């Protein structure tokens, strides 16, 4: 018998881009907004510069790729513990691809490129294999309707 647990997340978003005429014209309003989550620093958001946004602020596309990358990392670190692999460093240069047309747009894929550094006495094969259950255990990857590929590299520390 399986038991499910509900988890809820509350985010408050406030649009800050009314420049006096609201959304009267496409060019006449800013895309700026503030993202607030209780007990955490406020994030400043905008749209992608391609959509008249501010390149210095976080956009939804950035945050989706970030969510996939960090979710995989956290899931992987857990799997490493289970596999007896000691991770000492982890970086990822994640990339997302999106297509747009006159009807809108959608992500076509996200590719994660984690570089995992492990101790010399850890098994590189187990470190590599741990990415699979990590991917399948990632809540965010399980929630999107496009492929999330993982192309990991394992680095073994020298003695």
UniProtKB/TrEMBL annotation:
It comes from the Bacteria. This is Organic hydroperoxide reductase OsmC/OhrA. InterPro entries: KH_dom-like_a/b, OsmC/Ohr_fam, OsmC/Ohrsf, OsmC_Ohr_Peroxiredoxin. Pfam families: OsmC. It comes from Dyella japonica.
């Amino acid at each position: 018998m399986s038991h499910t647990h509900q988890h809820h997340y509350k985010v408050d978003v406030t649009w800050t881009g009314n420049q006096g005429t609201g959304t009267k014209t496409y060019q006449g309003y800013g895309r700026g907004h503030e993202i607030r989550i209780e007990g955490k620093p406020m994030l400043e958001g905008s749209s992608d510069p391609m959509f008249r946004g501010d390149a210095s602020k976080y956009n939804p596309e950035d945050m989706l790729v970030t969510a996939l990358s960090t979710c995989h990392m956290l899931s992987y670190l857990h799997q490493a513990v289970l596999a007896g692999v000691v991770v000492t460093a982890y970086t990822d240069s994640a990339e997302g691809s999106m297509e747009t047309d006159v009807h809108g747009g959608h992500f076509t894929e996200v590719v994660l490129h984690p570089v995992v550094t492990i101790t010399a006495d850890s098994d590189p094969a187990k470190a590599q294999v741990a990415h699979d259950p990590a991917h399948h255990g990632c809540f965010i990857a399980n929630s999107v309707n496009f492929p999330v590929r993982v192309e990991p590299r394992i680095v073994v520390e020298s003695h």
